[in-house]
Structure formats: C-alpha cells, structure tokens
Amino acid sequence: MNNNIDKSDLRRVILSTSEQFKEGLAVAKNINVDTQFSRIMVSGMGGSALHANVLRIALNSISKKYDNYKIISVYQNRFYELPPEAYNDCLNIICSHSGNTEETISSFEEALKNNLPCVGISAGGVVEKMCKENNILHVKLPIPFDNFQPRMATGHFVSAILQILVNANKLPQEAVELDGVSEQLKEITPKMEERGKQIAKTLVGKTPVIYASTKFKALAMIWKIKINENSKTPAFWNYFPELNHNEFVGFSNPQSKFHILMLRDLEDHPRNLLRYEVTSKFLKEKEIETEIIDMPEGDIFYRVFATITLADWISYYLALEYKQDPTPVDMVEDLKKALK
C-alpha cells in the first residue's frame, strides 16, 4: 500500500509494534547488573531517548501497585556531558540505536573515565564496540526490518530496560509480563489506522500543536516528534494546566494556521479535565481548529503504547498527504555530514 511513497514500508513496521515487548525482554534476559543503584540515567538522543519518558510514566504507575519496591527515578541526558545525577547511586544506561550517536558516545566516554556503572543498549555500532572493549554489559537490539528507525523502537528500549530492572531486583517479575498488553495492541493497531488517516487529513496545511495532561506530557512530546520525523513538518507541544498560564495567551493573536490535538486522560484531576473543555471553547472562538482525543483505558503500558500508535498512524498518513516518504530523515543525516 502506497509503496510509491512509503518505500521502506513503515506501515508494516507500525503493524508489528506489538511484537516489540517480547523481543526487547528476550535480548535483555541475561543482563545482570552487579551494582547497587536507586536511579537510572538514560543517555540518548532523538528516537533513542523517547523511551525514558515512557519509562518514567510506567515506573510511577508500577510503584503504586507494589509496596515492596521503591520507585526508580529516571533521569535523562541529551547532551555530550553527564549531569551531576549520573555520579551518585546511579546506573548509566547508554542508548543509541545506531550505536554511533556522537553526543551519547561522548557521555559514555565520560562514564568510563570515571568508572561509573553502565549498561549499553544499541543495535551495534561504536557503543557495542566500546562495551566489548571495556567489559561493559551490552544489550543488542533487534532490527526487524530494513531501514528500521530509532523512533519506532520505543517498545524494544522500554522492555529491555524493564528486564534489566527486574534482573536487578528493582521490579517484580509481574512488571514485565506484557503478553496481554501485546495482544491488545495487536488487535487495536489495525483498527486505529482509519482514525489516524482521518485525523491526518484535518492537519494538512496546518501546524499541529499537541497538548496532554501533566502525567502524560511525555506523550504530547512524542506525538510532536513523530509528526516532525515522519511527516516532515513542524509541530509543537505543551501540557495542562501550565499552558493555560502562558502559551494560551499567544493565541490572542495567532500568526499561523494551527490545529490543536488534546490528549485527554479521563482519570485526570477534575479541574484539569474542565480546562480541556474551556480551553477548546476559547480556541474555537479564535477560529483555531481543536480536537479532543480521549486516551484508552486499561493497563498503563496499553494506554501509553496505544496512544503512541495513533500518533504513528496520524504522522504516517500526513506524510503521504504531503507526498513524503515517512522513514528517512534526510535533514538529520545531512546535518551529521556537515558537522564532520
């Protein structure tokens, strides 16, 4: 379908998302970290960093279910140097899907220089080589399809890190029993395709802006990134209630054609839920198109990944509307070459 545009068959990749939990758990099953830690620092860029945002949501939810397990704090490093938190009671998780991300490699070098506890996660590349040379544990990610992109590997990263935490006795085994979630995603993913196609049509020629609740603000950011990389078009994100205290005022004098997509968590604080309705009303009075999208109910992993899957479909079909192959990110690759 649409192979004249979708040359790498991203549609097939989206349809296979539900398999990533099983694959990610499998590649990390023998990774046993021999160190004590109460937090993790995820160093990664772009699609190799998205999973840290999802992990934070999931671990907060898991900690409320199991009283015997303390919550694992998740920190993120999207730079060449490690922040101070990486140095104390912390497991550094070095994430680069290609294994060749220069910022991440620089942070890995700093971690090695200072003998910090580390685990590498990549599909190969320099990160894998550095792990082997320095006797660092390495998780080798699967590459299920040609031209498989990091932004599509969130399930692999999340499940692999969860397995590492289970092996370190930081989470119960039940936390990675995700077969039920995989089956739900397998069933819902093709059903979401038509909805994604219809929403994409409403975004043509407009600048998408994604809003979510505080709890799920990371999903708004992920939607924005999916649209940037798959659809090759600008998009922006923010979250309630903070956006009502600043960004909202900017729509007094809008300078572009915006289309607001609000990801609503029906379990959110009642006052925050009211903000969705009132904000939508005010924006529509400014002739700004607004749509409220209710997140699915159920297990936290299902809720998160089903919501991300809808973003995959929307960004995929918006790319086709713009006659753009959704897989390659030529400007990123051109920039890397220019930096050499």
Verbal overview:
The longest helix is centred in the middle third of the chain and has 25 residues, at 179-203. Helices cover 46% and strands 14% of the residues. The chain is built from 12 helices and 9 strands. It has 2 domains: 10-177, Glucose-6-phosphate isomerase like protein, domain 1 (Rossmann fold, 3-Layer(aba) Sandwich), CATH 3.40.50; 180-321, Glucose-6-phosphate isomerase like protein, domain 1 (Rossmann fold, 3-Layer(aba) Sandwich), CATH 3.40.50. The protein is of the alpha/beta class and 340 residues long. The two termini are 38 Å apart. It has helices spanning 10-15, 20-27, 50-65, 102-113, 125-133, 154-167, 179-203, 217-231, 247-250, 270-285, 300-321, 330-339; strands at residues 39-43, 73-77, 90-96, 118-122, 137-140, 207-212, 236-239, 258-264, 289-294. The radius of gyration is 20 Å and the shape is globular.
